[in-house]
Amino acid sequence: MSDFWKEQAAYWPIAALAPMDWYTDSAYRQIVKKINPKVVCFSEFYSADWIVHSKFLANSVLPHHESEKPLIIQIFWKDPEMFKKAAIIIESYWVAWIDVNMWCPAKKVVQSWHWSSLMINVDTAFKIIEEMSKAVKIPVSVKTRLGYNDADNLIEFAKWLENAWAKLITVHWRTYKQAFTWEADWNMIYELKKNIWIPVIWNWDVLNYDDWMKKLQNLDWFMIWRKSFGNPWSFLPWSKIPSMNERLEIMEEHSRLLIELKWRKWALESRKNLVQYLFGFPWVKEFRSQLVRVETFEDVQKVLKDIRNNV
Ligand SMILES: Cc1cc2nc3c(=O)[nH]c(=O)nc-3n(C[C@H](O)[C@H](O)[C@H](O)COP(=O)(O)O)c2cc1C
C-alpha cells in the first residue's frame, strides 16, 4: 500500500463527494471540506482534450485551495494518448489522483466511444489506464457502472482494470441501460470486492450515516451526490442536522467563494446552489424565490438576514 492509501485508510470509512458536472467545483468542494475535512472530493468531469489544448482552461479548473486536498480530478475522452498527455498536466498541479469517467450514459458521447462505452471497448479501457499509470506517479482510478447491458462482466472488467494498474474503482449501481432507474442488486458489489484487491467505492442512493454504515459491509468507501446537494452535512457521521443559523452561514460562505471562482457567472451559480440549501422548509418559500433573483452579494446577504430575522 502506498503512503497515500495508508493515510486515507486512517479515515475509514471514507466518504467521497461524487463528481458532478456544474456543481462539484472548487467552491462546493471547499464547503464540503469545511464541514468534514475527511471527505475526499472528486471534481466535475473535464475533457482530456480540453486540458491538453487550452492552458487557459486548464488554469481555470486545476488550481485548487489547500483545504481541498487530496483532490481528485476526473477526466473523460476516448484515446489513450490524449489521456496520457492530460494526466501529465494534471499531476503538475499537485492533484492527488486522477479518475477516469467510464460512467456517463449520454447517448451522443457513448456512440462516439467515450465514457460508459469503454465498458464494452475493454482493450481501449485497459490501454487508457495502463498508459496513464506509466506516465504519472499519482494513482489512476475509474468510475464506472454495474455493466453496459447487464452486470455479467462486472468482476471481469474490474480485474481487467486492476491489471492495467487502476488503484481504485467506484461502481455506480446501475447499468448503462438502466440509467437512473431500477432497484440495484447490492450483493454484486460485495461479491466484486471479494474478487479484487483494490479499494471499491459504493455509489448510488446513499441516504445518511446509518444508511452508509449498513451498505458499506466489506467495501472501502462510499460516495454521495444527490443527498449532499444543498446538504453538505450529509457527510457528517450521525446524520447531524444543522441549525438554521449554521445553514445560513454556510450559504453566505458558498456564495462568497463562488464570487472568487466564477466572476461574471457568479449570480447564476449562486442562485442554483443557494435555493437548494432551503429545500424542505415550506416557511422559507418566499425567500427561495428571492434567492433565484439575486444580482449582487449584497442581495444575498439581505435575503439571508431576512431569513435569520424570521427564524
Ligand atoms: C446532472 C448530473 C451530473 C453528473 N455528473 C457526473 C460527472 O461529471 N462525473 C461522474 O462520474 N458522475 C456524474 N454524475 C453521477 C454522480 O456522480 C453519481 O454517480 C450519481 O448521482 C449517483 O449517486 P447518488 O445516488 O449519490 O446521487 C452526475 C449525475 C447527475 C444527475
From TrEMBL:
Residue positions binding FMN: Q74, K143, H172
Keyword Oxidoreductase: yes
Transmembrane domains' residue ranges: none
EC number: 1.3.1.-
Cofactor dependence: FMN
The protein's enzyme class: oxidoreductase
Any one GO molecular-function label of the UniProt entry: tRNA binding
Catalytic activity: a 5,6-dihydrouridine in tRNA + NAD(+) = a uridine in tRNA + NADH + H(+); a 5,6-dihydrouridine in tRNA + NADP(+) = a uridine in tRNA + NADPH + H(+)
UniProt cross-references to Gene3D superfamilies, sorted A to Z: Aldolase class I (3.20.20.70), Putative flavin oxidoreducatase, domain 2 (1.10.1200.80)
Classification via PANTHER family: DUS-LIKE FMN-BINDING DOMAIN-CONTAINING PROTEIN, TRNA-DIHYDROURIDINE SYNTHASE
Its biological purpose: Catalyzes the synthesis of 5,6-dihydrouridine (D), a modified base found in the D-loop of most tRNAs, via the reduction of the C5-C6 double bond in target uridines.
Name the record gives this protein: tRNA-dihydrouridine synthase
Annotated source species: uncultured bacterium
Record lineage: Bacteria, environmental samples
